[in-house]
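Entry 14. Ran structure prediction on the chain below.
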Amino acid sequence: MALFNIQNPLVFTFGILGNLVSFAVYLAPMPTFYRIFKKKSTEGFQSLPYVVALLSSMLWIYYATLKSNETLLITINSVGCLIESIYIAIYIAYAPRKARMGAVKLLSLLNFVGFGLIVIFTHFLVKGPERVQVLGWICVTLSASVYIAPLTIMKD
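Output, structure tokens:
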């Protein structure tokens, strides 16, 4: 399986390219949050996509710590956690009270309770190589939901 080892230059090169693209995706909402910051208002934007993206990054870091040689996954998702946390903090700072409370509840439910339950479930109920496989499927599913979450807030 040397093809999938980080020492393989081709795999490493594509891993770096993937991280650069992921970094650009994490920065994509920056104009929105700059506008929120300038206007001191969330203008009806929702926190759901950013909370789900934070959970996804957190789970990918957990997944990467269970596997070996996953430095690229850890680095990009650590950056993702930082960026998404900043977005959420800006959102909470400028959201109206009702939206702020909703964002805090969503953050608590998904990122603290949900993440904690997934860690407990995968740690105590799934053993050996199956743990990584189960967690990988959870991560892939949640990653897809990162791109589905914004669709839930689209207006007709």
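Residues 47-151 form one domain. Will compare against last week's run tomorrow.
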